[in-house]
Amino acid sequence: xxxxxxxxxxxxxxxxxxxxxxxxxxxxPSFVQHIADxxxxxxxxxxxxxxxxxxxxxAQHGFGMWRVALADTGTAIGMAGLLKRDYLDGIDxxxxxxxxxxGQGYALEATRAIMEHVxxxxxxxxxxxxxxxxxxxxxxxxxxxGFEPDGTVRIPDSGKLVRLFAAALP
Length: 170
Known about the structure:
The structure is a single chain. By secondary structure, this protein is α+β, with helices and mostly antiparallel strands. It has a single domain (4-123), classed as Gcn5-related N-acetyltransferase (GNAT) (Aminopeptidase, 3-Layer(aba) Sandwich), CATH 3.40.630. The chain has five helices and eight strands; from the N terminus they run ββαααβββαβαββ. It has a five-stranded antiparallel beta sheet. Strand 1 (4-5) and strand 2 (9-13) form a beta hairpin. The longest helix is centred in the first third of the chain and has 19 residues, at 43-61. The protein is globular and about 35 Å long.
């Protein structure tokens, strides 16, 4: 897995050195509200999350969540990438950003770069996304990327009902 670059961002695989950043991001109230409480409360928990989540996904699928950083400073501002969830019929795109970096187009810029990257993956003709029904900003972002509503899905672990979106790839 390489690096994706945009005008303002560098999107790279996460490493265990991202533990402090991941700890902060996963405990942001917006992350807990719109995504989930991952139960990560310390640096060791953040390293376990990285090992069992993104790093395991890279090894198993060749993709996963990536670190999104500002190109000019290298400051980590969020995560974005591709996931393969057992309960979805296909890969899905996901993203989460620190609150001070939302509303500035970074999520759209990063996700657009990831969608371009998806086109290089063999056999992928459609990408999914799941979103809490009350997350209007995320739903709007998906619309800008060409995603359309595709029903709902219940997340097995939490029982939470979320909206499902899909985008066909040319």
